[in-house]
Amino acid sequence: MIHRVKLKNSEDFAIFDDQAYEFLTTDPYLIKIDFINNIRRHSSGCGVFQKVWKNQDGSYVTETIYLHKLIAEKFLSHHKTDKVNLVGVKNGNKLDCRIENLEYRTRSHASRVRKTASKTGYTGVYREGAKYRAVITINGKLTHLGMFLTPEEAAIAFNNKSKQIYGDKGKINIIRNDDKKRS
């Protein structure tokens, strides 16, 4: 069964499977801090619990618990290693915290699936004059893939190389408009 919990500061919902929901609603500490009713949408798009607590000496401390990390640490910690230690979501929805949608990733994998900062809207595609350059990082080294007339053509070149080098773990640009037919 799927459980949906409305976020405190948003119209969005966090999504859980039975196991995760039961943990979040029965763990003594999470009950004490009313975790399930105080999940907010973080600026990064994920679910987070944040509360400022006053210490006995009058100072303050902020407690921050990231929802996807909490669930992964509880149910998937056996997949965590020194290099595979960042929690990500498989389907791209950072509020979908079903156990089957969470995974531990390497830093390089996490970097490959992060949203692009390129002004073209495509990872690995940059405008140079009237053309578009496609580049990809292989073993920490930037590799030139070619110059193209459109950003979509450059994105397709990036996608092809990403599939070849990284397989299912590679970043794939979603091609806009009618150019999807060519990818």
Task: List the topology elements.
Layout: E1 3-6, E2 13-16, H1 18-26, H2 28-32, E3 40-41, E4 47-54, E5 60-66, H3 67-75, E6 84-89, E7 102-106, H4 107-113, E8 125-128, E9 131-138, E10 141-148, H5 151-166
Antiparallel strand pairs: 1-2, 3-4, 4-5, 6-7, 8-9, 9-10
Report on this structure:
25% of the residues lie in helices and 31% in strands. It has a three-stranded antiparallel beta sheet with strand order 3-4-5. It is built from five helices and ten strands, in the order E-E-H-H-E-E-E-H-E-E-H-E-E-E-H. Residues 179-183 have low confidence and may be disordered. The chain is elongated and about 60 Å long. Strand 4 and strand 5 form a beta hairpin. It has two domains: 3-79 and 95-104, no CATH class; 115-182, AP2/ERF domain (GCC-box Binding Domain, 2-Layer Sandwich), CATH 3.30.730.10. It has helices at residues 18-26, 28-32, 67-75, 107-113, 151-166, and strands at 3-6, 13-16, 40-41, 47-54, 60-66, 84-89, 102-106, 125-128, 131-138, 141-148. With 183 residues, the chain is an alpha+beta fold.
The secondary-structure element order is: EEHHEEEHEEHEEEH
Beta strand count: 10
From the alpha-carbon coordinates, what is the Rg to the nearest angstrom?
20 Å
Gap from first CA to last CA:
36 Å
Number of helical elements: 5
- Any low-confidence stretches, pLDDT <50, length ≥5? 179-183
Order of strands, main sheet, comes to 3-4-5
Biggest sheet details:
3 strands, antiparallel
Shape: elongated
Any idea how many domains? 2
Compact description:
The chain has 183 residues and is α+β, with helices and mostly antiparallel strands. It is 25% helix and 31% strand.
